[in-house]
Amino acid sequence: EGHFLKLMLMFCLKSDVGHRALAVAILQRTAQAEAKSKVPARMLSFLSAGGLVVLSRWLVEAYTMEVQTQSTMQASGGKKKNITTTQSTASPTGKLLLPLLQLLASIPFDKELIVASQINKTIKRLKKILDKLIQTADPSSLGAFVHPIAGGLPVVKVRAAIDNVMEVWNQEALINRKRK
Questions:
Q1: Cα 111 vs. chain centroid, distance in angstroms?
Q2: Calpha distance 130→148 (Å, rounded)
Q3: Fewer CB near the last or first residue (10 Å), C or N of the chain?
Q4: Which distant-in-sequence residues (6+ apart) come within 8 Å of 35 by Cβ?
């Protein structure tokens, strides 16, 4: 849980004010719940207080590229042309993509919370985007292939982390079905 709190605090510092306020409110609620009773763990309290919604937003923020446009005037043959160039860069929180996915693989599995937060859809959307990038990449340099959507990280590492989350959640879902 120490890794979880460290990740939360790092993201709070890099997030916009709305996300920061929501994360702080959830952290306060989990601390209050823990103070009242030692039974619920901090992680379970965070998740039941809507923490997966925050993690889903952070995941989207981490893989959403920043697009910068720049207009320049160029003169050629007495005519001026306005040339616009765009450049995509990784999100400032892109480096948190792998730790977020690792955290999601280690949280207590609760299918209802996962579906309600729609974090499963966010993960599947990212997986689909990364699969398209991998298909178009040069196979000989795939291990070193980085892209802003992958947070500026190696695409195959992010894709492997997604596979890990999905595998862990599928195993937990099977175990929960057998218990019923």
A1: 18
A2: 11
A3: C
A4: none
Answer for the pair 109, 172: CB distance below 8 angstroms, yes or no: yes
Burial of 13 from C-beta contacts in 10 A (0-12 / 13-18 / 19+)? exposed
Coil, strand, or helix at residue 147? coil
Q: Full-prediction pTM beyond 0.85?
A: no
Burial of 58 (0-12, 13-18, 19+ CB in 10 A): buried
The rounded average pLDDT for each run of 10 residues, N- to C-terminus, in the chain (180 residues) is: 58 60 61 49 77 91 87 74 82 89 86 91 96 92 90 93 95 84
Alpha-carbon span 104 to 162, nearest angstrom: 9
Residue 38: its pLDDT value, please?
42
- 8 A C-beta contact, residue 101 and residue 164: yes
pLDDT for 36: 53
